[in-house]
DNA helicase (Streptomyces purpureus), 713 residues
Amino acid sequence: MAAALKVGGSTLQARLERDVLVAEQSGLLAAYNAGETGLCFGRLVFRDGRDHHIGRIGIREDDAHRTPLVVDWRAEVARPFYLATGHTPMGLRRRRHITTHGRDVTALHDEVLDLEDTTRTGHESRDADEVLLAALDAARTGRMHDIVQTIQAEQDTIIRSPHRGVLVVEGGPGTGKTAVALHRAAYLLYAHREQLAKRAVLIVGPNPAFLGYIGQVLPSLGETGVLLATPGELFPGVRATGTDTPRAAAVKGSAAMADALAQAVRDRQQVPERGAPLIVEHDDGDLILDWDMALEARHKARETDLPHNLARPHFVFRLLDALAEQLADRIGADPYGGPNFLGPDDIALLAKGVATNPAVHAAIDTLWPPLTPEEFLTDYLADPTHLDDEDAAAIRREGGPWTAADVALLDEAAELLGEDDSAARAREEAERQQQIAYAQGVLDVSYASRTYEFEDKEEQDKDASEVLSAHDIIDAERFAERHEEADHRSAAERAAADRTWAFGHIIVDEAQELSAMAWRLLMRRTPSRSMTLVGDPAQTGDSAGVGSWERILAPYVQDRWELVRLGVNYRTPAEIMEVAAEVRRAHDPAFEPPSSVRSTGVKPWERTVDDVVAETVRAVGDELPAEGRLAVIAPAALHPALIAALPDAAHGRVPDLTRPVVLLDPRQAKGLEFDTVLVVDPDAIESGAAHGINDLYVALTRATQRLGVVRRA
Ligand SMILES: Nc1ncnc2c1ncn2[C@@H]1O[C@H](COP(=O)(O)OP(=O)(O)OP(=O)(O)O)[C@@H](O)[C@H]1O
């Protein structure tokens, strides 16, 4: 790859070749890297003698038949690895789990599924879940790992679901929703490589720390055609660094904003006041742009139903015509009432004068200005209209950085405004013509070399006529287009820079957190409506439930969506889950958490103290695992004191989760997990936000081993 990147040359041909090479090499590199960890993790021996090794990627022998050596876990033939049971062995005689460390095999676990088979390997395990439990018990690293070795049957069904529309995956904490969604992306990329590699997959997660946490999973499976983004990163060129009050975010996210913005765009299409026309100085006499004239032009422009910037030329041309006509009428008028003195040439000349007068354009611009989404929204937020007074006050802002909620509004504005890209298109067309000329040159060279190749041959003419050269089957225009297709960055990179990109599939984690305006944005990014949504009503700020999925999805897909549920908690041991469930039961006595797949025998502790910071520091000292990670989850207000007292803890907007101790607020902790978790001042977390109980529930369910609660006296 390094060599490929160094390939010099500024010609189009050299650049194309380099880009193709780099794309190829980076794909290969991802596959090789994936191969370094757990390349092969399973083996299936069938009763009929078939014997397959299963791995993260498929590998074939370099023989004439390209014999499979390792079968990709996503292939149909690998399915019994995840689904076969003693009850339904799916033709299996035995299933082996192979555990490796680097290039060494460190453990083998065999399961015999054919009871008549009496041969033994000595690796038979008594507990079928041994490999799963070992994976769940392992020390955390601060990065999510793939689960291909231990995908459970209920998860496998979702990962391979043939459903083409919107699939909603619901489940309590730690049920593997995120893991399943990521593996589904990997599966879809495998099963529909043709469509998806070109269109890329978008994964939307709640915050940058979470994206950092899950970012390695797909590359570790050899998949790179994926773009990860938070909802605040979905408008190319804009970085959302500001924050909104919860009230402002709620107003900006509400569906009513779509109408308000549409109205506000119409407000920017003005006409002069009646009786107060605009007077424009012009060499051939002042021009009078009045109410009537502008109203007629605006009516015609709006009739096109085009977005603001695209309808604008219609408005401009109508007015230019009307003003030229006004001038002609005035100059050429016959005082005795006869026909106009001016001939068509004179009129054309007058029209040209009007159309090239900058003052005319400046006047028209004040009525129907060309607008960028950024300009428009900045103005709108300074003086929000078409909202009730309280809502308007909540979002009013003069300048300042963009927020995540603004991003959906910018996208909405971009739709309403449209982009007048005629200048850019003219440039592109000129470039295309250049490429065609270049391609013609290449074809001419190939034609010349064809004659040369056959020069020595006796029956030169006959042979030559039977051999098709590039020249015979392709013309210069098509040749140029082909090169253009092979050109450029990866699909994911192109997608990241293009607001109008249509993704092949979108995965949304914490989907119930998204606002109505954010849904509008995401739906525009996936015209095919191929999506996997992940959420848990009990962990989100919304009063959710199936009803809310229907409310969100029905406007876009009617009833073409499917809900699946996961019911087993793989992360949190039973002891911790009991504490978390108790907290919820105080509000909802019937609450049932997902059942934990394991228990550790370690009970969570709780201490009530006056000085929560000092107690937290002591607890960090006591609880810090020898291996693995510890998180302190505390309300944001306590962070300055905790940062001072725990100087080694990672903290901030995107904390480094691979450090031994990390300080987070409850919202940042969403989706993450740690060996040990200390929850500080739970009462403040619970009362700190509208759905504080959900935030506390999230905080209490992040640990894989130990939980401590430091309560304020
Ligand atoms: N089949 C499995 N094999 C091994 N580990 C698994 C399996 N399923 C889930 N896990 C592990 O369980 C943990 C929880 O998974 P994940 O984060 O996907 O859950 P979640 O439902 O998204 O949780 P939350 O809603 O609480 O964020 C992860 O460490 C994941 O790797």
